[in-house]
Amino acid sequence: VFAAGGMGNVEIGAGILASGTGQGSLAGLYAGGDIAEVRGRDANIYGNIVTQSNIDRIHLVGDSSIINANIMSVTDLAMSREFADDIEAPDDGDSVTNPEYDIGEIFIDAPAPRKSNVPPAGGIIGSVFLAGDIGTTRVRNGFGLINSLYSVLGDGRMGNFEIDGYGIRDVNIIAGAAIGRMVATGNGKHLAATRWSSAVRAS
Fold it and tell me: Shortest CA distance to 64 belongs to which of 25, 116, 107?
């Protein structure tokens, strides 16, 4: 889906398919202006979500994950290609103490297990998040944040990381000028991989 201007709230239904690795995108959300809230229930995001402005929020609930996706605010939408040479995030001139988050909140919330009822859950794996400033990332009752990249500008700011499950593993965080709280709430116990969606286990 491409919009030359902004894009309102987006309900992604069953999810967003992979964008592919060629010159043209096979799937994804691309906007020259702001993207409001991207929402989904029991839905996986495999494809790119890219803007030349801001993404207000990504909020997934239930058995949902972000898998091998590029979530970006860049000066040229073509920079989201898998093998782009130069990638540049726009600089909106905000300050470290009063940032305007180009990518706002990234929330993945699964229901809490209750005794014998252990619902499937997701998280974030193999994905890239790049913008001038990035807000809070939260994975609640999921597998955590794994094998991903977060990057902001040198004078950019990154919000909090509130992650449970396996915690934050093999994640490269280029935090710019400041970063918020890093909170991993797991208790160190082994977690059964069978609880996570089969779509994630192959990643």
Answer: 107
In tens, the pLDDT along 143-153 reads 999 999 999 99
Query: What residues contact 170, with CB distance under 8 A and at least 6 apart?
Result: 146, 147
Query: pTM of the predicted model, to two decimals?
Result: 0.91
Q: In the structure, what pLDDT confidence band is assigned to residue 96 with cuts at 50, 70 and 90?
A: confident
Beta bridge partners, 137, equal 106, 161
Reference 65, options 186, 131, 148; nearest CA is 148
With vertex at residue 190, the alpha carbon angle to CA 64 and CA 113, rounded to the nearest 5 degrees, is: 45
Phi, psi of 31 (to 5 degrees): -140, 140
Which DSSP letter does residue 116 get?
T
End-to-end alpha-carbon separation of the chain, Å?
Answer: 25
From 59, 92, 60, 73, select the one nearest 29 (Cα to Cα).
73
